[in-house]
Input
Amino acid sequence: MRVAIYTLGCKVNQYETQAMEAELTRRGHTLAPFDGEADAYIINTCTVTAVSDKKSRQMIRQARRRAPHAVVAVCGCYAQTDPGAVEKLGVDLVMGTNDRMGFLNALEALSPDGGQPVVDVDDALRRRTYERLPAGGLEGRTRAMLKVEDGCVNFCTYCIIPYARGPIRSLPLEEAACEAKRLAGLGYRELVLTGIEISSWGHDLKNGQGLIDLVEGVCAAAPGCRVRLGSLEPRTITEDFCRRAAALPNLCPHFHLSMQSGCDATLKRMNRKYDSERYYESVKLLRGHFDRPGITTDLIVGFPGETEAEFAQTLDFVRKCAFSALHIFPYSRRSGTPAASMPGQVPRTEKEERAHRAAEVAAELRAAWLAGGIGRTALVLFEEEKDGLWRGHAPDYTEVYAEGVGLHNVIKTVEMTEIHENGWRGSVVK
Output
């Protein structure tokens, strides 16, 4: 069977798609491009924003139009939270965010002659077991993702993901270390620890281990690989965490520290578990233990009740933190979350205007960050050739471009000479 897959959303979804692709290949099926002919189309959906829902629906309709007689199977977060809406789009199979191998079994069992759609979506909040899937590659043989955690119990008032993914489930340290060693043996030069909320890794294991223990174990198991962390909560960044992390030579000094707002009143309405003072303490700790770490964040603008004064406070705080990059999102109303029914919903035009202003501040900070890197050297993992230059990433996750020959999956010392696109151009030193 020729199977085409389209993936929306985060690195966890990408990871799970790669696991399904590997299993389909192992079972003798052929992977096909999504924009071509196939016997079955899989859409792995996202529901983090209303735009994600819309895009998921678009891709489902596109698959059905392209091949009316093919099987259309849908999984992922949107399928988990609104299976009825997905079923109405004329699909053959609907499952959610659990049991990926069972999803493939159900796909194979579908009659080619059609029939009643199969809808099998569990209650995510009742899950207690971590689903083990093979770790997969990203960007050829350069970077691999290692999923170590699933689920979230933070229940931020704007977020639907706890209902889509369920409570925290962790991959035990020993198994994560074995996977890291296996991936290093396959030739990957960088491992990305990913999950829905990796700061909570280990809470369900109840053995006293926390994220830094996992990071130390993975770094030791794959000493020839760079190890990069996914998104972190500010509570993770403590003196002990930073001291131990800074001692790991293969840990990338890039920290995506989730923020959402720089205003304490807004943070409280969001049910975030910190205030701006605690957040800034995390930023200072990272800069005190690492040499010019890349610190990036997420920002939600136009949250219900956010006044112009509160937004201005957030922009001031963003400047104070001097992030190397920001991801900016206008607030998206998610049915079933507390924020959806809060008073003071901000009009769409105002949210868009604030997003634009935030983007201007982000661009200023990015320019300052890049300017500060000129003349410095960094170990760059090169990934692909683009327009006559090799593109790669520095440990702080800044893109680097340099001339060279045969640099795919090679780490070189590069001196940064100028700003190029949204990163640096440099010269290979050795």
